[in-house]
């Protein structure tokens, strides 16, 4: 090998000769400096040669004033799951829409219709399969579309669909329940194509920034789940009728998406964000991009570097989607016929959605204080596989209907199970997701972030298909 030729990751060194270019600018105008790379032999040949020439300028890193960008990514973490979690949490509304209309306006929790029983299993399939196809395409072609444009298109489309869903809350669908069911499934398909595109775009951007920004986005995702379940509970308490509570609930979701859109537009003009978007960090790995080298890094090479984290994420979400919400939403209190609000309409929103999302958020926050960090990849993978034990345990809870499985566990046991299930989901996911981009050079981190999102979606898609089978086992 010719040792005079710079070799990537072998003997590359840099001189950060950042010069003011005044040849083409007017007086007093500073043109953005461009770092350049020279062979290590040329730098090391004369140790007395200064790295910065006398006329060089020092490049000062911009500061995230008031942690504004971090706060916006926290908000974006909340809204990127709105297309999937928000509709899923509205179980009270869906149970009303697909109730037995011949029995009157009230929902009978112990005598579910076919549409009620299978809604959330079908929901998982129509949500996650198109999402898997979308993320596979975006990993390969996202770089061809400017990030601001693709994220704006996806976010605006999600907002339009939410406005439409809000309008349909007050539409009487009792006479065409099967038609409305198929309409909702088709809407979910389109919604999650653009929602997944948005999710991959936001995670890709967060991967370009320092690690605490992607962690802020991950925490925002868990807060989004808690927020949606809390709003659902408040809407039920405030407006007892399912259509009134549904109108308030979907209206709040639409407003939240609009606020997220405004936040996304705002950070486009922040110097800190624009700096990291261009990715000029002071190391050779950051100065050289794969475009500069004329090499397009295949996804399989990225996977080989982070395969343990990727498989962990796939297993985590596959196990979760197998039973949540397809099985857990069918669990009813043993006192369901007592007539109390707690054991009736509030049991599922509180004990299923709120507890899971609160525990999930606690797990993600806990991983920042007691992380399974570098060198613990095998342990994370092992614990992710161990979570499979939750599937048969939930099948033994008091689900309605249940024709094949015995009921062994009471309400308290179910609450303990759903809490442990949620905490392990958040803790293990956050540990795996935070470690993967750190193993990559900065110019590969956006692509790695998008790839890891792909494994999230793949796990959800596989779990959604398995959930259809699991529900049949009840």
Automatic annotation (TrEMBL):
Primary site of residence: membrane
TM regions (residue ranges): 72-89, 120-141, 153-171, 177-198, 218-240, 246-267, 310-333, 339-358, 379-396, 412-429, 450-471
Listed GO MF terms: nucleoside transmembrane transporter activity
Signal peptide location: none
GO cellular component: plasma membrane
Keyword annotations: Membrane, Transmembrane, Transmembrane helix, Transport
Entry-linked InterPro entries: Eqnu_transpt
Alphabetized Pfam families for the sequence: Nucleoside_tran (PF01733)
Keyword flag Thylakoid: no
Membrane topology: Multi-pass membrane protein
Domain of life the protein comes from: Eukaryota
Compartments in which it is found: Membrane
Sequence similarity: Belongs to the SLC29A/ENT transporter (TC 2.A.57) family.
UniProt protein name: Putative equilibrative nucleoside transporter 3-like protein
Organism: Ornithodoros turicata
């Amino acid at each position: 090998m010719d040792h005079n030729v710079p070799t990537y990751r072998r003997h590359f060194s840099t001189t950060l000769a950042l010069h003011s270019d005044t040849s083409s600018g007017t007086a007093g105008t500073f043109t953005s400096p461009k770092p350049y790379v020279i062979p290590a032999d040329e730098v090391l040949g004369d140790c007395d040669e200064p790295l910065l020439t006398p006329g060089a300028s020092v490049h000062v890193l911009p500061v995230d004033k008031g942690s504004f960008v971090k706060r916006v990514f926290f908000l974006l973490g909340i809204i990127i799951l709105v297309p999937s979690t928000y509709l899923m949490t509205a179980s009270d509304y869906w149970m009303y829409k697909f109730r037995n209309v011949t029995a009157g306006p009230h929902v009978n929790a112990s005598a579910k219709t076919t549409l009620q029983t299978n809604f959330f299993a079908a929901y998982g399939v129509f949500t996650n399969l198109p999402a898997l196809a979308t993320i596979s395409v975006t990993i390969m072609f996202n770089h061809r579309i400017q990030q601001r444009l693709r994220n704006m298109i996806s976010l605006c489309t999600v907002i339009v669909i939410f406005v439409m869903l809000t309008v349909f809350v007050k539409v009487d669908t009792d006479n065409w329940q099967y038609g409305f069911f198929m309409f909702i499934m088709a809407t979910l398909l389109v919604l999650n194509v653009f929602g997944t595109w948005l999710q991959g775009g936001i995670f890709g951007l967060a991967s370009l920034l320092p690690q605490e920004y992607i962690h802020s986005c991950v925490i925002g995702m868990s807060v989004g789940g808690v927020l949606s379940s809390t709003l659902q509970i408040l809407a039920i308490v405030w407006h007892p009728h399912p259509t009134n509570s549904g109108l308030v609930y979907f209206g709040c979701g639409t407003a939240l998406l609009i606020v997220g859109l405004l936040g996304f537009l705002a950070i486009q003009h922040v110097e800190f964000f624009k700096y990291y978007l261009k990715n000029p960090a002071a190391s050779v790995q950051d100065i050289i991009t794969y475009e500069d080298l004329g090499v397009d890094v295949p996804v399989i090479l990225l996977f080989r570097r982070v395969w343990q984290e990727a498989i962990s994420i796939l297993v985590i979400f596959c196990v979760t989607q197998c039973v949540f919400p397809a099985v857990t939403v069918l669990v009813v209190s043993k006192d369901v016929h007592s007539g109390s609000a707690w054991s009736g309409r509030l049991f599922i929103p509180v004990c299923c959605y709120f507890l899971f999302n609160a525990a999930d958020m606690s797990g993600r926050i806990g991983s920042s204080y007691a992380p399974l960090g570098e060198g613990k990849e095998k342990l994370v993978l092992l614990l992710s596989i161990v979570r499979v034990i939750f599937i048969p345990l939930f099948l033994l809870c008091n689900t309605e209907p249940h024709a094949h499985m015995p009921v062994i566990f009471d309400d308290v046991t179910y609450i303990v199970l759903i809490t442990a299930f949620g905490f392990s989901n958040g803790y293990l996911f956050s540990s795996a997701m935070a470690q993967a981009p750190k193993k990559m050079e900065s110019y590969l981190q956006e692509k790695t972030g998008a790839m890891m999102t792909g494994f999230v979606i793949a796990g959800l898609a596989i779990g959604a298909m398995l959930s259809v089978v699991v529900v049949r086992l009840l």
